[in-house]
Amino acid sequence: MRLLYAYRYGIIGGVSTQLILRRNAFQEVGIDCDLFFSQDNGLSQVLHNDDSVHYGKNIHLKKLIYERKFDLAVIVDSPELIDVARGPAYRRNPVLLDVHTTTRTGLSYLNDLNFRKLAGIIVPSSYSSRFVRSCLPDNKELTVVPNIIDSNVFNLSAQQRKAEVTNTGIREFVWVGKLDHHKNWRLALVYAAMLNEQLGNVCLNVVGGYTAPENQAEAFFELAFRLGISDRVNWLDRVNSTDLAALFQRCGASGGAMLITSRDESFGMAAAEALLCGCPLIANDLPVFHEIFPTSPLITYVDIWQPDQVVTAAKAIEEKYTKKAASDLSVELADRYNNRAFLSAFNSLIQNI
Amino acid sequence: MSKEWDKYLIEVMRENVLSLEAELEAVRNSVRFKIGGWVMQALPPGIQTVRLVWKLGIYYLRGKKRASAEKTKNEISCSPFNGHMIQKPIIVFGTDLPKVYNNYKVWFERDANLIAEFLDTCDFVGVLVLNKTDHRLLRRIERIRNLGWKIIWYPTRCQKGRGYVGRVAYVCSHADQVISYVGAE
Asked: What is the ipTM of this complex?
């Protein structure tokens, strides 16, 4: 079988990471899978000389479809690629739409979509299916195919090597996302300042924002300065998986946590990866997290607009954290969202096409 | 919790609203939206139809010009060391090198974009000397420091403008060395 996943943005982020994991999962069981991105926003620098990853305009996709003769194409939130992915009239490919966005703006393209061109629609969680369902005709089926979390990279193993953990006395927190209003990065900086005042000796690692526009970057440095935390914030515009896992492990070991200030999420990949590494979460109380994560002392849900709740949660981290809780959670998440679970859900889906 | 934090939270909420409005404005200014508006104006056919065709022509030509400029930019080589493995290359964002450093194999560059692209793809570590700040480099300094790069803040030009203070505060906190320039304005 030959599959194609296509997405507009070749950016180092949640969706592209997920597509690479899915491709690897397919290849492990002998299914050819290619990835296509309409734009290269830095991804090619990470995926050197990868023959199954392609970049280009619609005409390049058209050529790829013609040459490779895929059995199925999956388009991720990029409606402009659907017609091309269907292929020529004499050899139509079934096309699935994979919806990963939950923002109103991001979902607006569904209002103009001709669903008859699609063999099916998939989403990563039951929570995000509610958003998408409201935009679909009644007779259109929706299938939940959960994301894969890479437990080969994100795990507790480094935590067990105590000698490697340098105790600097600084409690490290981490925030992962794009510098946009949806992820609410400004709130993360405000809380970093607040926690530094309340707990003392705190630093925040901000991961993401590789393609943040100039005005957002300037706003970042300006706000950090006004909050008095220019020396307490580390901006890491992009990080590879191995280094990110090490960062999560370090934050967990230092008594810190991952802050999630997002207004919404379709799955919460970065949060899941942090938990696999034993890094606790202080998360905005989003419904999707209750679906994706089991109950655990490592996860504290707060109203992200209530500073008292955030500070209380940060103070309680060290009391609630135990190695057993971290290990149990890591094992459960790795089991729930591994390659096998994804392939099983995907296999059930394509049986009906 | 003190009122000061409430002030910041209100500011964050306000910025979020402004971002949403900016998104909406971007949609209104998008070509697709505009073309929809023009089509409404162009029917029934008349002088307004001629104006529509003229506007579409201008957009097409601007798009071609932009694509051509991007292609030229992508073709610019950013390999100042010509692929040689240099033991400790020094990149200066600006024109001034601290006297303590050897002049051998120094790349002086005023284009932050070129330096940024180079830092993203090079496979060795070196020294980055900043004579002034730029958001494209500042967002990268912690990443390259983790790889072993050394960052030197050596301000030789008095920068003004929006955001300058914030950028300087950040680079001062994150540079491995801050060197004062004797003779700075």
From this structure: 0.87
